[in-house]
Specification:
Elements lengths: L2 E5 L8 H13 L4 E5 L5 H5 L14 H5 L15 E3 L4 H11 L8 H7 L7 E5 L6 H9 L2 E7 L2 H5 L1 H13 L6 E8 L6 H14 L14 H7 L4 H4 L4 H15 L1
Parallel strand pairs: 1-4, 1-5, 2-3, 2-4, 5-6
The protein binds adenosine-5'-diphosphate (ADP) and magnesium ion (MG).
The site of adenosine-5'-diphosphate has 17 residues, from helix 1 and helix 10.
Amino acid sequence: MKKIIAVVNQSGGAGKTTLSQNIGYHLGLKNRVLLIDMDPQASLTAFMGLDKLKLKMEQNIYGAITERSPIKVWHEPIHGVYFIPTNQELSSAEIEVSRDVTADNRMRLKTALEEIADQFDYTILDCPPSLSLLSIMSLVAATHVVIPLETQYKCYKGTDDLFGTIANVKKRGHKNLEIACIVPNKYEDRNLHDKEILEEVTKLLQGKVHITEPIPKSTAFAGASKEHVPLALYKKNHPGVTMLQAISDYLEKA
Ligand SMILES: Nc1ncnc2c1ncn2[C@@H]1O[C@H](COP(=O)(O)OP(=O)(O)O)[C@@H](O)[C@H]1O
Ligand SMILES: [Mg+2]
């Protein structure tokens, strides 16, 4: 089965972009993977080493969403992964699309992806830090959701809204959408607060959603992004690499 994975959390800094890039890389070792930058801030585009200012409109996801033009994948894979970059134009896409009251706007990305769905085993959608139309479009297009969760109180409190939004999308005709896993991120096991939040999340969700091993807080993640590479190509013996591989293995079975 082809999987479309939305990496979602309205909280900025949770690790969506980092996780998208890294699970994309690990899944890409054995599969055909497409990564799509759905965030107008274009962090993933930068992490992948592309300059958003040099991108033409037809090279990003914007045209496919607003004008229903054919989706264009970057001409070569980057570290084994196919990619659709973005830039700020995507924020105007959201405004333009919301003006069009005749169409089912939420379906636009799903429809665009149908054209190319067969070419990829996995499509990973790196969502923006909001529950706006771009995130909703991504959830509607997705078969699976991955939720990175910073082990901080404010992020934990935001999960109610996130689960509510996912439940709403399911209720509105996408009942097969599955939460594949929650990935606790930036975890410090010496920090009592992090430990407490992880325990609470586990207590609340155990048996309902798979919670992966927490990814430790480490400056190596920022270092890898700066070098435009996944963690495995930056520090191959970093403990996070084994965890990211395990998350990718889990997603293959999900
Ligand atoms: N486990 C981690 N430890 C330390 N820093 C991290 C970790 N995961 C992500 N980061 C850093 O935190 C920042 C925000 O991560 P990012 O993936 O961009 O989050 P989001 O896409 O959810 O806004 C980035 O600078 C990234 O390098
Ligand atoms: Mg991001």
